[in-house]
Amino acid sequence: MPSSTILKYAALNTPRYTSYPTAPHFHAGVGQDVYAQWLEEIDGAMTGSIYLHIPYCREMCWYCGCSTKATRRAAPVDTYVDVLLQEIAQTAARLRTRPRIDHIHFGGGTPTLVEPARLAEIMAALRQGFEISETAEIAVEIDPRQCSQSLVETLASLGFNRASLGVQTFDPEIQAKINRIQSRETVTACVERLRSVGIDAISLDLLYGLPGETVTSCQETVAAALELEPDRFSVFGYAHLPHLKSHQRLIADADLPGPDARVRHAMAIAEALNAAGYTPIGLDHFARAGDRMSTQAQSGTLRRNFQGYTTDQADFLIGLGASSIGKLPQGYVQNASSVPDWTRRIQTGEAATVRGFALSAEDRLRADIIERLMCDLRVDRDAVTRSYEGSFPDAFLDDLYEDGVVCEDGRLLRVPEHFRMLARTVAARFDAHLGQAPGAVHARSV
Question: Are 182 and 145 in contact (CB under 8 A)?
Answer without folding.
Answer: yes
